[in-house]
Amino acid sequence: MSAFDALRIAGSGMTLHRKFLDAVSDNVANINTAAAPDQEAFKERFIVAQANDYGSGTGGVRVAGAAFGSGEGKLVYSPDNPLADDEGYVRLPDIDLGTQMTNMLIAQRGYQANISAISRATDAYQAALSLGKNL
Amino acid sequence: MIGIGDTTTAALHAALSGLAQRQRVSSDNIANVNTPGFLAGRTDFESNLRSELSSGDTPVVGGGSVHRSLAATRTDGNNVDLDSETVIATETGLRYQLALQALNGKYDLLSAAMRTQ
Amino acid sequence: MTVNPLALTTGYGVGVSSGYRNNGVSNSIPAGDISGMLLGGISSTGTVGAVGGQPVGQVARTADGSTFADLLTGSIGRLQGLQSTADGYAKQAATGDLQDVHDYMIAASEAKLATTAVVTLKNKAVEAFNDIMRMPV
Q1: For the segment B73-108, what is each residue's pLDDT rounded down to a tens digit?
Q2: What is the DSSP string of chain C?
Q3: Chains interfacing with C (3 or more CB pairs < 8 Å)
Q4: C116 touches chain B (CB under 8 A)
Q5: What's the number of CA atoms in the CB half-sphere (13 Å) around residue B14?
Q6: Pairwise CB contact (< 8 Å): A3 & C109
Q7: What's the pLDDT tens digit per position in A21-59?
Q8: Extents of the domains making up chain B
Q9: Which of C96, C99, C102 lies at the smallest CB-CB distance from A131?
């Protein structure tokens, strides 16, 4: 543990929440991506977060990988779509816009909270640096 | 003269120039966050300083080295991570202040010892 | 680096002993402000020999038998310890291995205070000596 570990840990939190936000915007951008019924629909993307040395040691968080939702999606009747099959169905992703908007808020708040942790840690260190200034 | 220019002051001086170099490289990285093919720069003066201090030599000022980070790049070939650059810049600023305070403290001590009033 | 304030400016060695010559009046060493704080209080007074055969130059001692010279030497030794602690932390701060910022700040403040205290003592002692030397015999 070095003196400025709080900064590094909050920085890892910032990176994670930014990647979370990236995944959520990817999902929202592809919410209407159609596919032919015999192919997989666009799969919702999740970020797997993992704590670094949980309980002891370095601390912080990292992205352990990405996980994908189901590719089944939902069949929607849309006969004018060029990808539609003989019965007029296309496969759209099964992504709920409400959930994605909530996740966006969560990611934003998490990002801001980590930024505030960094600025508080910086203030604390600068206060420590003024110890004994008027001796 | 006694005490002026011993290993500790030289080590702090070396740390100050190393940290200033890191600050410059970090601003360079942030300025090039959207440049295709740009690899982030990383500096290192600590390993040189540590080995000089443990072997008892006087630390050399300006012994920091710059190398390119080999972290994963995005699709445009750029691998600058804005969040880590921000944290590195903040931490470097704080460590710079700490080293300045330490140097100040040493000089203060010397001048307090020389007072005759 | 260690600083020995006495050697630095006055040319005296460490340890100022005081042998007072007087005519039989008992002396009490003033246990004032900085001396008192730093040296833990001088609790007893010493009497110096009266006229008529008593040895002159007997030194005042505290309750546990140490003289002012011992106390001064002890505080200078402690000062060197404090300065090297602060130096060690400063080297750690330079290489980035410092665990807590306040460790260094506290050690540096203690070293500065101890240096100021010892230097003030030294200055007062030198002033007192000069005052005495100026006395017309």
Answers
A1: 888 899 999 888 999 999 999 999 999 999 998 998
A2: ----HHHHHT---S--------SSPPB-----HHHHHHHT-----BPPP-TTTPPS-PPPB-TTS-BHHHHHHHHHHHHHHHHHHHHHHHHHHHHT--S-HHHHHHHHHHHHHHHHHHHHHHHHHHHHHHHHHHS--
A3: A, B
A4: yes
A5: 32
A6: no
A7: 999 999 999 999 999 988 889 999 999 999 887 777 778
A8: 7-115
A9: C102
Name chain B contacts of C2, Cβ cutoff 8 Å: 3
Q: Which chains are adjacent to chain B, needing at least 3 Cβ pairs under 8 Å?
A: A, C
What is the distance in angstroms between the CA of the first residue and the CA of the last residue of chain A? Answer: 30
- Apex CA B100: angle with CA B97 and CA B102, to 5°? 110
ipTM of the complex: 0.86
* pTM of the predicted model as reported, rounded to 2 decimal places: 0.73
Contact residues, chain C, for A134 at CB < 8 Å = none
